[in-house]
Amino acid sequence: MTSVSTAAxxxxxxxxxxxxxxxCLAALLVMLYPLAWLLATSLKPADEVIASLDLLPxxxxxxxxxxxxxxVNDVSVWRLLSNSLLIAGGAVLGNVISCSLAxxxxxxxxFRFRGPMFAFMIATIMLPHHAxxxxxxxxxxxxxxxxxxxxLILPKFLATEAFFVFLIVQFMRGLPRELEEAARIDGCGxxxxxxxxxxxxxxxxxxxxxxxxxxxxxNDFFTQLIYLFDPDKFxxxxxxxxxxxxxxxxxxxxxxxxxxxxxxxxxxxFLAFQRFLVEGMASSGLKG
Length: 288
Known about the structure:
The protein is mostly helical. It has helices at 2-9, 15-41, 46-51, 63-70, 77-108, 114-123, 129-142, 150-153, 162-172, 178-185, 190-201, 203-219, 222-227, 236-247, 252-286. Helix 5 packs across helix 12 (203-219), helix 9 packs parallel to helix 15 and helix 12 runs antiparallel to helix 15 (252-286).
């Protein structure tokens, strides 16, 4: 027993693994540095933001957050936050519903020209967003929907996000068809099989779709800038630009404080569903 413990104690250190762990730790610190810099800068006075390169502030300027919570253009940060949540929530709901229905049709149903239609849908992933922005704007302008939230939410209910359709299709193709065949014998139609059998089993892929949709919509600036003109309808992303335009360089501290406020919902949303994100991405990549 003593010889075994002595041999274990003399086991050579695997320096390769130690170097790997140190490298991962260094990479983690590099990736977290921008976040730490943002948090620290949000508490710096205006003169330190520009003149000082130190990470930690000389003294904490909590008034930056007080100014940030007052909002911009007489619109409070709570109104801006609710606008962002409304758009992001509507986009998540639209993508989850429409993309799951389209994916079910491509993955589980048999119909004519299914293959070419699926290939055409996949090809739209390579289409730049800016190429269709002007035609979309003309359509929504003629419908009287400019300066409303409809152009930002309505397309999500039409399965326009081919990436998420492909993601869910890959997941559904890995589900056993015996479940649907048994349901069909019991008298279930396609819609009932979808809602009662396939949809619950596709939860990891749906949550993955919800996470990415929420993050991408929350951080979207260009599309919101095109369609929204009224400050009362602005999101936090647009408010950051307005904050700088309204107060110029003297508002750097409050601007970074509002950036921290805008970042919190994304972090909380991701932390709440990260385990489903890993499960959904792994399953979608391995199945099918």
